[in-house]
């Protein structure tokens, strides 16, 4: 399934905005890191990622997941929204309408995210529906808070704290986000995952 096809499936009204390329994303993060005088090792340690993966991001060889991009951006003192031209509008709603949601992506060839608006100001829970293509493998990451996952569709293998958990549609997984974790789509179709967590990826406005 192409990016345009996935966008047509997940986007609401309006035309999508092309996400930044891996090269331009890496260049922007590298320039910001150098501007504030941090080393790749420092960014990696603070973001809960490997130094090798930070190097791959900066060289445009890999793109981070949304939570990892949030961690890197936070370490660099900038908002993840700078890299999400299709991000959610600043609003709160107790009801989320499927027909009104837009998809956003960090890389056109990878995941598509539907970031769900928080229902009220200062809400503690944050949520997102992630569309992952067959064969997708995320980086190993960790961050503050808790993660709760509900697999809507597909088959995913999650590694959490060194243990593997195979989830099929309807299964859930709940764990401390401080444990190193990653995900792999081991099925033959796109997987859809509902993530609910305490990490505030998009800041309150």
List keywords for this structure.
disordered N terminus, five-stranded antiparallel sheet, alpha+beta, 205 residues, single chain
Tell me what you see in this structure:
The chain is of the alpha+beta class and 205 residues long. It has a single domain, classed as Jelly Rolls (Sandwich). It has a 5-stranded antiparallel sheet with strand order 1-2-8-3-6, with helices on one face. The protein is globular and about 45 Å long. 35% of the residues are buried.
User: Which of globular, elongated, flat, extended, rod-shaped describes the shape?
Assistant: globular
User: What CATH architecture would you give?
Assistant: Sandwich
Helix content: 10-25%
Please identify the structural class as seen in this structure: alpha+beta
Order of helices and strands: HHHHHEEEEEEEE
First-to-last CA distance: 34 Å
Q: Could you give me the name of the CATH homologous superfamily?
A: Jelly Rolls
Which sheet architecture does the biggest sheet show?
A: 5 strands, antiparallel
Across the major sheet, the strand order is 1-2-8-3-6
**Rg from C-alpha positions?**
16 Å
Number of domains: 1
Q: How many E-type strands?
A: 8
Mean pLDDT: 86
Low-pLDDT parts are: 1-17
- What is the CATH topology assignment? Jelly Rolls
Strand composition percent? 15-25%
Specify the CATH class: Mainly Beta
> How many helices?
5
InterPro entries: Cro/C1-type_HTH (IPR001387), Cupin_2 (IPR013096), Lambda_DNA-bd_dom_sf (IPR010982), RmlC-like_jellyroll (IPR014710), RmlC_Cupin_sf (IPR011051), TransReg_Diox_bact_type (IPR050807)
Region (Disordered): 1-26
Protein name: XRE family transcriptional regulator
Domain HTH cro/C1-type: 29-83
């Amino acid at each position: 399934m192409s990016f345009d096809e996935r966008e047509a499936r997940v986007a609401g009204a309006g035309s999508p905005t092309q996400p930044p390329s891996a090269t331009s994303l890496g260049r922007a993060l590298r320039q910001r890191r150098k501007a504030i005088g941090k080393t790749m090792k420092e960014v990696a340690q603070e973001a809960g990622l490997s130094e090798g993966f930070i190097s791959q991001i900066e060289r445009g060889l890999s793109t981070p997941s949304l939570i990892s991009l949030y961690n890197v951006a936070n370490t660099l003192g900038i908002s993840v929204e700078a890299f999400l031209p299709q991000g959610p509008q600043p609003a709160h709603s107790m009801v989320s309408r499927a027909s009104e949601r837009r998809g956003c992506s960090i890389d056109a060839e990878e995941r598509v995210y539907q970031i769900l608006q928080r229902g009220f100001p200062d809400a503690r829970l944050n949520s997102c529906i992630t569309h992952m293509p067959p064969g997708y493998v995320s980086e190993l990451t960790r961050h503050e808070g808790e993660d709760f996952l509900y697999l809507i569709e597909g088959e995913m293998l999650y590694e959490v704290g060194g243990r593997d958990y195979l989830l099929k549609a309807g299964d859930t997984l709940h764990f401390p986000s401080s444990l190193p974790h990653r995900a792999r789509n081991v099925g033959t179709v796109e997987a859809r995952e509902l993530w609910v967590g305490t990490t505030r990826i998009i800041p309150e406005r």
